[in-house]
């Protein structure tokens, strides 16, 4: 299932940005996130700060998010915000919704603090550098 989802997202990103999906590789960190209103324990847990994925993670060229819970039903706050000059653009997570974007400075973003409930998502990231590639996760 994980490999199939990754492949489908990878193909859609490649189609949207006009590149070959064979030139894209899964990279780390690709991760599951569970965000709620508890206090952050480390600076990495402070997800609400504006950031650029390419700066934060280095290997990212494309970032995708697969949402697993619904804004306003499962949690409050937690919307994804692109911080564009002049006007922000906000994505309200919905279970099954996928958003993706290039990971460079053109896409400064943050996540609003979750006020109640739990926000679940999977971040699946891609690189164009085969030296930064990882294999699909394997169940052991």
UniProtKB/TrEMBL annotation:
Pfam families: 2OG-FeII_Oxy_3. The keyword Iron applies. SMART domains: P4Hc. Its cofactor is L-ascorbate. GO terms for molecular function: dioxygenase activity; iron ion binding; L-ascorbic acid binding; oxidoreductase activity, acting on paired donors, with incorporation or reduction of molecular oxygen. Keywords: Dioxygenase, Iron, Metal-binding, Oxidoreductase. Residues 28-130 form the Fe2OG dioxygenase domain. The keyword Membrane does not apply. GO terms for cellular component: membrane. This is OGFD3 protein. It comes from Asarcornis scutulata. The gene is Ogfod3.
């Amino acid at each position: 299932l994980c490999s199939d989802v990754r492949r489908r997202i990878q193909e859609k990103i490649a189609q949207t940005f006009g590149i070959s999906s064979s030139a894209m590789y899964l990279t780390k960190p690709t991760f599951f996130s569970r965000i709620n209103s508890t206090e952050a324990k480390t600076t990495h847990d402070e997800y609400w700060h504006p950031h650029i994925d390419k700066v934060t993670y280095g290997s990212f060229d494309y970032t995708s998010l697969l949402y697993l819970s619904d804004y306003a039903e499962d949690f409050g706050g937690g919307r994804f915000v692109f911080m564009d000059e002049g006007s922000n653009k906000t994505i309200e997570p919905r279970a099954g919704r996928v958003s993706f974007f290039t990971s460079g400075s053109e896409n400064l973003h943050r996540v609003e603090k979750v006020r109640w409930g739990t926000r679940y998502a999977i971040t699946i990231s891609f690189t164009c550098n085969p030296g930064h590639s990882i294999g699909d996760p394997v169940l052991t």
